[in-house]
Amino acid sequence: MAVLLRALCLLPFLTHVSFGQFLPFFGGWFGGNNGGSAVSYSDSSNWELVSKDSGVSAMHLILMPKNNKAIMFDATVFGPSKIQLPDGENCRLVPDSKTNETDCWAHAVEYDIGTAEVRPLKVWTNPWCSSGGLAADGTLVGTGGWKEGGKSVRLLSGCATCDWKDIPDALAGYRWYATQQILPDGRFFVIGGRRTFTYEFLSPKGTGNLKSFTFDFLRETTDLAENNLYPFVHLSPDGNLFIFANNRSILFNPTTQKILREFPVLPGGSRNYPASGMSALLPLNLQDGNAEAEVLVCGGAKPEAFGLAENKTFLPALEDCGRIDIKNPNSDWKIETMPSRRVMGDMLILPTGDVLMINGAKKGTSAWDLADVPNFTPVLYSPEKSVNERFKELEPSSIPRMYHSTSAVLPEGKILVAGSNTNPDYKFKGVKYPTEMRVEKFSPPYLDPSLQGQKPEILLEYSQVALTYGESFKVKVKFSNDWEVDMTDMKVTMYAPPFTTHGYSMNQRLLILETSSVGRTFLGFYDIVVMAPPSGTVAPPGYYLLYVVHRGVPSTGMWVQIQ
């Protein structure tokens, strides 16, 4: 038998016949059709502490594509951080100081996701509670903040020595707690902010036209607690914008600047900051040529929760989710119940298309010291399963991740978790929830070591990374265990890394691409021919993490750029 196997391995080199053509004669030993049987996840998920000190409190977090580094930053007014600017570098002049006070502390860092090393970055204007996103060329474009930062645009590229470039007064509106969404043409749509009931457009280079447009919907949805800050904005694959504020939502055409329709009210309570629920556009499946577009909104707080929390009465957070088809003019919210209550949580889309809910609290609202009872337990939501089987609780953390905590999906499929500061400055003693500088990585169930035989490995040197809209491209993968490969249970996903702050991941997007063919080229090696997204309305230009998912187990992601 051993001699026969060795002889079969030589056949592809001796003939022009592919190895896969011999499979029917061997009963599928070498990876034939196994009937599409998906791997059954165990409850195995785990946490690891990867750093004891992030240098700054990670109020804002994003993964950069060119260098695989995470950018973390907070505000410039919270006093000394735990890392100083490099020796010899000019300190920042504190705005409005009557004594020419200088600030030599870093308030942003570049965090190496592999080694946990940090490089201090110099922030010029205050980015407290700002917004951001990646431009098509991979530059981080940040907008707004507080005081002198409220109209600033900040740019950061991915070079090894690059630092922030600040463009003061580049925005027309004062954007504090605003939302930023990339558009199909690469521009940004920036909306809202405290007592700013307008929107504007921003170029990828960070320059605006210094013109804002009144948006009455924001004025209509505010209340005494301003529960419509950081509005949820999702780009529909038809090019329109789904905008959710407080408990109401609309579909808005950014080209004509007209509201196309308003959706039914989502009952139960308020969902935006400071009520701080979670939201994501569910994965867009391009395999059938007409992707449905559904939005998920979960958690939050009662409208009155903020005012009561100021008097130390913490109402229970909401425990429901609403899910709606935003392309259907007659759609209504479908309500589901989470395993636990959650406010200030993060909602991330995993490479598999499942949704992860992580961080936050079970009582209270966002803002300093206005929440209690940490929610330590992540929840997995599987949108394709039947209604009663979608939620699954995972391994809990032991570190409270409350207000100003963040998280990000990494190329390896793990989740980077950082931040949590319920205090107006860095406090490590004498408070119930100290400023948290530790960084963790959370491993979802698909990283269980027992499943690694199912895991594809993308061969970067033989795979295409520059994509063109509507054109096919090839991804080559290999498996360590070819005997269990099921070519009928393989999909390719593309993930846009979001800018996460205050429980909302802006610009997050996952596409399930159309697969033209999967073919074996040799034992353990496969070529996958995939169709790129058709346009910028489906996939705005820029960098994405591309994953190959086999039987529910994703590969390590490969950076691709589409334009």
Structural features:
4% helix, 45 strands, six-stranded antiparallel β-sheet, 563 residues, mainly beta, seven-stranded mixed β-sheet, disordered N terminus
Termini gap = 51 Å
Tally of contiguous helical segments: 3
Number of strands: 45
- Residue ranges: pLDDT <50 for 5 or more in a row? 1-37
Query: Sheet with the most strands?
Result: 7 strands, mixed
Helix content estimate = under 10%
The helix-and-strand class reads mainly beta
C-alpha geometry? globular
- Strand content bin: 25-35%
Q: Mean of residue pLDDT? A: 92
Which value, in Å, is the CA radius of gyration?
Answer: 24 Å
Any overview of this molecule?
There is one protein chain. This protein starts with a helix and ends with a strand. Mean pLDDT is 92; it is low at 1-37. The chain is globular, with a radius of gyration of 24 Å. Helices cover 4% and strands 35% of the residues. It contains three helices and 45 strands. The strands form eleven sheets. Strands 21, 35, 37, 40, 43, 44 and 45 form a seven-stranded mixed beta sheet that branches. Strands 7-6-3-2-38-39 form a six-stranded antiparallel beta sheet, with no helix packed on it. It is mainly beta and 563 residues long. Strand 8 (131-134) and strand 9 form a beta hairpin.
